[in-house]
Specification:
The chain has 673 residues and is α+β, with helices and mostly antiparallel strands. It is built from 25 helices and 15 strands. Helix 1 runs antiparallel to helix 2, helix 4 runs antiparallel to helix 5 and helix 20 packs antiparallel against helix 24. The radius of gyration is 36 Å and the shape is extended.
């Protein structure tokens, strides 16, 4: 492999291909899951980017073609079905071939890649309806709404329309709920009343909104499927989008506003609620009304405004944009605007401001008044000591604990380094070998120390070296321990492919994937597990029709499980199929002279005969089984790991194969390699 294809590229691409395969298999069972569609698309996009970065041009080009087709899936133009999943899984296999062509020199079948892309592009899209255009709505838009529309288009958001019907009694609350959902990643632009097909007591709206989400996710949020609006011909928006300077994303600024309108604002028919609604369109907003100036009821003049508001607004917009909204309220209104957070530059100033500091800044409290109250105020610790609830030393220790936790949390938050690193396998193997040599030297040192007790300090040094060697050995071996689930995931693809090949229906379930074994043992377990799963599919799980006649579900189940049992790990492979036919095994064993005529072996001994070389009850050789080599390979592999394997089966109910690997022998394997 060329030097530019680094080890990190190999590891990252392999992980991405496994992630892509896993997401596709999950998507097959949940074709309407938008998150899974997103996972598949992101994996394809990342694989394409990684391939291009390391100069794997052929793989990047192939992945780009697959990504382009899957983008149609993400846009709800191609439905998720078995043919699509099968083609993309075939594309994953071809990506592995392309990657192998540059990493280990194995050639890839270029014709197969072209065939996969051609079949993907030939998938039938969903019916396409004419897309409505934004021009149809411009006549009812206000200038402000057009400005918000252009702003969202400049942020690369798409514009959608959805019809909603609200009850007259709960319209405010229902509209607020819709607005809250859209604010996750978008903005409500306009509410256009619609009277067609609206029952009595209800009111209909066509809601126009901008969002960065796709139709599938928006349908989940709104409970209705929206229609995307074509904005490509909007002159103002296109002009702004094409001529606006390319700037980095602006940081958000938090403003503190005090809005004190003229008492005559209501007589001018200015809608303060609508004004606040536009303000909320700029970003996260909190509004607090102050009623201290409201007179008693007998003195109240309904047409006069006696309320003022304090407002907190976090937005990317400028102060000028905020003042533009309040300009509609008239010149007689008082508006104070101050910046209290400018996008993170004040994060290092310490804790958030205290209550007194905020009141001083807003002019609601004089410094002399604050100092007077603070001089009278006692801290919680002082009050607790005065009451006799705790002793002074306990308060002091609690304050120390508080400060310590604060320092620890600050250090944790400021730590930028990754929590884990990748280490090549050969480096880890070298470390284990060095630790093994160190343990041997330590044992020699301990023996010398015991034979030379008169040498001053030698015994203490030997004990300390022994303690360190044992700790280092245990820690190093723990590093090599991996969850067995790391080899479970490919078997779901195996079961799926065999189901199609054999004309059966089956699913794989896994249990105990978090159970840990040494990485070397896991690697050596992969081949026997492949043979056992294939055996379950071929000999165990019956065809769907036969299962139905037997009163079973059409879909069979293969379970792959692992659990730590005492000083060993027990791995089980089970199916709910036909079970082993004892008479067929006995007859085949006698035919091959493995079992003497008239012998009466126990059930356990009879089942163990299937592990003999060349033994198979299949009368016809297939691409899956029949040659009598699978179970023989399994037995040799488990014996090499100093493990044991047993079979339990009930005819008509299924078979369970148990593999037991001693943990201490797993450690021996790691030290040998």
């Amino acid at each position: 492999m060329d030097e530019k294809y680094t080890q990190s590229c190999v590891e990252e691409t392999s992980e991405l291909l496994c992630e892509l395969e896993t997401a596709l298999l999950e998507l097959e069972h949940a074709p309407d899951d938008g998150e899974l569609v997103g996972r598949v698309f992101r994996a394809l996009h990342t694989i394409k980017g990684t391939s291009g970065m390391f100069g794997l041009e052929e793989m990047a080009a192939f992945t780009h073609e697959v990504e382009t087709v899957f983008d149609l899936v993400r846009s709800d133009l191609i439905p998720v079905h078995k043919e699509l999943i099968s083609l993309v899984l075939a594309a994953v296999d071809h990506m592995r071939e392309l990657f192998g062509a540059v990493t280990v020199g194995t050639p890839a079948d270029a014709g197969m890649g072209r065939e996969i892309i051609a079949r993907l592009k030939g998938l039938e899209p969903l019916p396409h309806f004419p897309q409505p255009t934004i021009e149809a709505f411009l006549g009812v838009f206000t200038e402000y709404e057009i400005a918000r529309l252009c702003a969202n288009l400049n942020r690369n958001r798409r514009v959608f329309s959805v019809r909603k019907v609200f009850s007259l009694a709960g319209i405010d609350e229902e509209l607020a709920q819709v607005n809250t959902r859209l604010k996750v990643d978008g903005e409500l632009l306009s509410k256009i009343p619609r009277s067609d097909d609206v029952p009595a007591g209800f009111i209909g709206f066509e809601l126009l909104f901008a969002s960065g989400r796709d139709c599938r996710r928006l349908a989940e949020l709104l409970g209705s499927t929206p229609v995307e609006i074509d904005c490509s011909l909007l002159p103002d928006a296109r002009h702004r989008a094409n001529t606006a300077p390319k700037q980095a994303k602006r940081s958000t600024i938090t403003y503190r506003l005090r809005f004190q309108p003229s008492p005559l604002i209501f007589r001018k028919e200015i809608d303060v609620v609508a004004l606040f609604a536009r303000l909320r369109g700029l970003g996260a907003c909190k509004i607090v009304a102050h009623l201290s100036n409201v007179p008693l009821l007998e003195d109240l003049v309904p047409e006069e405004c006696c309320i003022y508001w304090n407002i907190l607004l976090t937005t990317e917009r400028s102060e000028k944009a905020i003042r533009g909204i309040f300009g509609l309220a008239g010149k007689d209104c008082r508006l104070q605007i101050g910046v209290i957070d400018d996008g993170g530059s004040r994060d290092n100033d310490g804790d958030c401001k205290k209550l007194g500091e905020i009141l001083l800044e807003r002019g609601d409290l004089a410094l002399e008044e604050l100092q007077q109250v603070l001089s009278e105020q006692k801290r919680l610790g002082e009050l607790l000591v005065e009451k006799g609830f705790v002793q002074p030393d306990l308060v002091e220790s609690a304050l120390i604990e508080q400060q310590h936790l604060k320092e620890v949390r600050q250090e944790r938050l400021s730590r930028q380094a990754s929590a884990s690193i990748r280490v090549p396998t050969d480096k880890l193997d070298t470390l284990v070998n060095l630790v093994g040599q160190l343990v041997t030297v330590q044992a020699t040192l301990s023996r010398i120390a015991s034979e030379a007790p008169t040498v001053a300090g030698l015994g203490a040094v030997a004990e300390e070296v022994e303690r360190l060697a044992i700790g280092l050995r245990g820690n190093t071996l723990d590093i090599r321990m991996l969850p067995i689930g790391t080899i479970f995931s490919p078997f779901e693809r195996l079961v799926r492919d065999l189901s199609h090949e054999l004309g059966k229906e089956a699913e794989l379930k896994t249990v105990g994937a978090e159970t840990e074994l040494d990485k070397t043992v896991l690697e050596k377990l992969n081949e026997p597990l492949v043979h056992l799963v294939r055996n379950c599919m071929d000999h165990g799980v019956e065809p769907p029709g036969l299962r139905e006649r037997a009163g079973k579900p059409r879909r069979g189940t293969i379970c792959l499980g692992a659990v730590q049992s005492g000083d060993s790990v027990l791995i089980t492979i089970s199916d709910d199929g036909a079970g082993l036919n004892k008479e067929a095994i006995r007859a085949r064993a006698m035919e091959k002279w493995i079992l003497a005529a008239g012998a009466e072996p126990t059930e356990k001994e009879l089942f163990a005969l299937v592990f003999n070389p060349g033994f198979s009850t299949a009368r016809k050789v297939s691409s899956v089984s029949g040659r009598g080599v699978g179970m023989d390979v399994v037995k040799r592999a488990i014996d090499a790991l100093r493990g044991t394997i047993e079979i339990a089966s009930s005819e008509g109910a299924g078979t369970t194969i148990g593999i037991r690997i001693p943990l201490e022998l797993s450690i021996i394997e790691s030290l040998k390699n």
